[in-house]
Amino acid sequence: MEQALSVRGLRKQYDGFSLRDVSFDLPRGSIMGLIGENGAGKTTTISAILGLIHPDAGQVRILGKEIKAGERELHEKLGVVLDESNFHDNLTIRDIDAIMARMYRTWNREIFYGYCKQFGLPERKTVKTFSRGMKTKLSIAVAISHDAELLILDEATSGLDPVVRNEILNIFLEFIQDERKSILVSSHITGDLEKVADYITFLHGGKVLLSQNRDELLERYGVLRCGLGDFGKLDPALVEGVRKNQFGYEVLVRDRRDAVRRYPNYPVDPASLEEIMVFYVRGKEA
Amino acid sequence: MTGLLMKDLLNLKRTLLGMLGLMAIYGVVFSALMGDASSFLSSMLTVIFITVTVSSFSYDALVRWDRYALSLPVSRRDLVASKYLLAVVLAAVGAIAAFAMGVIMGLFHHDLVLEELGLSTVISIGGGLLIVAILLPLIFKFGVEKSRLMLIGVALIPLGLVYLLKWLQIPLPDFSILMTQAWLAPLAGLLFLGLSYFISVAIFQRKEL
Question: CA-based, 20 to 30 A from B71: which of A21, A184, A248, B164?
């Protein structure tokens, strides 16, 4: 399968934080969710993919081509939404149209105005008057109005209300109807990604904890519940993370079916993405 | 790159018009009180085009524009070049405005000396471009907030230089001879700006955004 994005062995050392050998593949025609707590390395990874920072090591291939320093040709095929509004307060939709027409060779004015209308963005008002949700929708409209093949969004849905988030998720689904197109979207709102992402890459402390198909992930992981005295009886190899409360333990297990077979007396429920994330990040403390 | 320049001009449109309007009002008041306003107008022009250039960086910093711009098909070199182009365009707009206002006021007072007006305009452009040439690499290196203070320092450099020469008892060139070569000032300014551009590109290439 052809990869829309392929990241290999990405490394970047900062004071107090480092990205360690980040690797993952995003197949064409699909959506990948990049999840992880704040400070896990999501934005650093995206910055490296976009060439905004200089990684110490590693390779990024976009649409099958390696990104070279200073080369901007591939960026024609990218649509990017970063975690804040990047348009100046004094600009209007018309201004932005005029600017973008000079940025992208394939800029499509009709499509852009079409999206602005669909998203309810007023043409003549300045960006200053836009709400947070409108600003995000504007950024998305810009990102998908020049026939981009890969959409990269950093925390695009954070800070928005559920109605707007849902609208945006629908735009994503519509976008990948064309199977040349793909999306990489980072978020700490795991519920959103659970709805739309085909693949999940989970970053924690600058490392990839897991990167796999969402359905497999949700199919396999489970949460086992047992009493306070029973935790010691479990095979430690089975335990991925643990949470203790006053009644007993909740244990994240990597293989739900195996856990049910081996410990038929304890209830085992499917784990949500959020539970997987929280257990991995906080669940080592018990 | 035209897109980047356009973004700055559209965004700064109001600031620029406001500044030019202010310049006109002050010019009128000044010329009513003192008569000849040409030196006043040309020094205003320098201040205006430097402040507007710097405020374009402030606006960019506010929305982290650099990060976004470099995600578009825009190279780091383009981004740097657009700022230098902006400075030149603003200098030209300011010069034309100052000159035009000077002519109008001169005609009004019946004391128009085109030569003097032209002279003060070219010297202001030259001086302004020199300051911008020193300032832009500092902004690309340290960011606009830290560079604000440096702006004051940079503006004081020529003054310091004159004092240094005096202190070292190096004779200053005769002012009137200097003035005959004044038309060279914008060219010298552009030359420094060109040199400064290469320094800024080298700085910005290495920058982490």
Answer: A21
- Provide the domain count of chain A: 2
**Of the ranges A99-113, B35-49, B153-167, the best mean pLDDT one:** A99-113
Residues facing A13 on adjacent strands = A18
Residue A158 and residue A161: Cα distance in Å, rounded?
9
Predicted pLDDT of residue B128:
87
- Please tell me which residue of chain A has the smallest CA distance to B72: A75
- Residues A145, A121: Cα–Cα separation, whole Å: 15
Residues A235 and A206 in one domain: no
Q: What angle do CA A155, A159, A160 make, to 5 degrees?
A: 100
What's the complex ipTM? 0.89
The residue with tokens 């602005």 is: A116
Question: Do residues A197 and A104 share a domain?
Answer: yes
Q: Do A72 and B75 touch (CB under 8 A)?
A: yes
- For chain A, say whether B76 makes contact (Cβ under 8 Å): yes
Question: Does this model's pTM top 0.80?
Answer: yes
Tens digits of per-residue pLDDT, B55-114?
A: 999 999 999 999 999 999 999 999 999 999 999 999 888 888 888 888 888 888 777 778
Q: Is A90 on the interface with B (CB under 8 A)?
A: yes
Its domain, for residue A239, covers 221-282
Interatomic CA distance for residues B28 and B24, integer angstroms: 6
CB contact under 8 A, A78 and B71: yes
Residue A286 has pLDDT above 50, yes or no: no
Q: What is the CATH number of the domain that holds A54?
A: 3.40.50.300
Same structural domain, A206 and A278? no
Last residue of a domain, one of A201, A217, A233: A217
Tell me which residue in A51, A84, A88 faces B70 most closely, judged by beta carbons.
A51
Question: Within a 10 A sphere around the Cβ of A61, how many other Cβ atoms?
Answer: 17
CA distance A147 to chain B (A): 13
**Model confidence over B115-169: pLDDT tens digits?**
888 888 888 888 888 889 989 999 999 998 888 788 777 777 777 877 887 788 7
Q: Are both A161 and A210 inside the same structural domain?
A: yes
Indicate if A277 and A243 belong to the same structural domain.
Answer: yes
Interface test with A, best of B6, B52, B72, B80 (most A CBs within 10 A): B72
Give the chain B residue whose CA is nearest to the CA of A152: B71
**Is B72's Cβ below 8 Å from some Cβ in A?**
yes
- Given CB atoms, is B81 within the 8 Å cutoff of chain A? no
Q: Are A91 and B10 in contact (CB under 8 A)?
A: yes
Query: Phi, psi at residue A85, to the nearest 5°?
Result: -70, 130
When mean pLDDT is compared across A59-63, B27-31, B157-161, the lowest value belongs to: B157-161
The A residues from 58 to 77 touching B (CB cutoff 8 Å) are: 70, 72-73, 75-76
